[in-house]
Write the structure tokens for this entry.
Amino acid sequence: MISRRLISRWRYLRDREKLLVPLKSYGVLNVLLVFPNVYSVGISNLGFQRVFSLLCRHSDVLCDVMYYPDDEILPDIEAGQELCSFYLEKTPSEFDVILFSVSFENDLLNVIRLLRLMRLPILAGERDESHPLIIGGGIVPTANPEPFAPFFDALFLGEAEAGLDGVIELYGDADSRGSFLEKVAKFKFVYVPLLESPKDCKKVRAFWKDVVNEPTCSCVVTPFSSFGESFMVEVSRGCPRRCNFCLSSYVCRPVRFVSVEAIKNAIEKRPVNKVGLLGTSVSEHKRLPDLIARYRDVEFSFSSIRIDAKEQFFNVLRHSGARTLTFGIEAASQRLREAIGKPVPDELIFERLKVLSSDFEAVKLYFMVGLPGEEDGDISAFDVFLKKAKGVFKGRISLSIAPFVPKPFTPFEREPFAGQSQLKSKIKRIKKIASQFKGVNVNYDLPKWSEVQALISCGDRDVGFYLAGIKKKIDKERYLSRKEGTLPWRFITLLS
């Protein structure tokens, strides 16, 4: 029996959506696209929406989606009631293929839970022709698929536009599960862990250059998105700055900026008057300010932008309708910012905050702790930083603190994770410093979950077995300390 509370929740959310793609009720191939996190997180992910729209376009495919159940619904599922898909309310067993789109390392834990809740064997080697095929994709398994390897029949490496159609068509032509896996393993951008290992294969991340003329746009608009009821439009993919810690700067290269004409066409087709402009380097798009200035009647919002963007960009922001801005500062001291490859001068930060103060109610500033080369003075620097920030910006200041986690393919990929005890101490100091300033609040990621993130980011198959409870113990220091030798993701080639 399907959980009635889950059906009620899905219907409540569906009633508030604007669905912008046609949804089929029949297909030759039934595909369930899963985002292994709650609805508000999944629906805010433009990459997830892109894969959904690609599958809905496919003439032979019926595609539905699923999200991780909310906490109040989980007891029903754990007690034996069934999960169902979001739109058509089908059970997972009614689908031929289940695709997981994974954007965050710790969502691997949710993948494992969902496979169990779907009543499927969690290990790929224990599934047979009677089970749906389980395929994974997204930026995290693209960067390092090894911790995901025990659970997936296949892992798609790279950008879905560059090869997902080919995988779907191959599945339709295959006469068995084994035949499909043997054939799809020959694709350079598909990794089949049951047949391949890092020691015996070479893979190349799939890359799609036509984003310049065909940007990703929302196929679902909902008030429950983190961008509110906005129509999201991709304006860039990748980032030219290449900060030493940034995964997307390296995995999503080369950088592509969507053409002004393509962005304009997307804005013209907006179903609502709020438009969210998204990308790793929104403020690097040289022609975007002039385009935004043409639409005085549109309320724009933005993903995180650089505080050292050109002044022209900030002039446009004042008239965008946005009231809160988000900036990645990363470190309170200029010395440490330079050491991590983000050399933004203090003077420029405070000059921009002063200019923005009269037009914006709040700023959210992202910082990291436990960075390579971090010293005691870099934590103490928060005192001076906040004094100057509050001196020039009169609105609310929110500090978001995240422990540094080394990422594959970045210059910091071999750096150590600082450890829970050290990170807790540093966060406690920052909170104490911030408490002296009115209008400043601090949010932070729990170090224990950042440690799990580091294990998944830098791990191999043993980490996956450990997180699933199959392997009872691993040497965590092997993954969390400075790394030597061949790294688990070295069999993947990225474009430069």
Remarks:
- Residues 4-156+164-204 form a domain with the Rossmann fold fold (CATH 3.40.50).
- The radius of gyration is 23 Å.
- Residues 238 and 255 are 4 Å apart (CA to CA).
- The chain is about 35% helix and 15% strand.
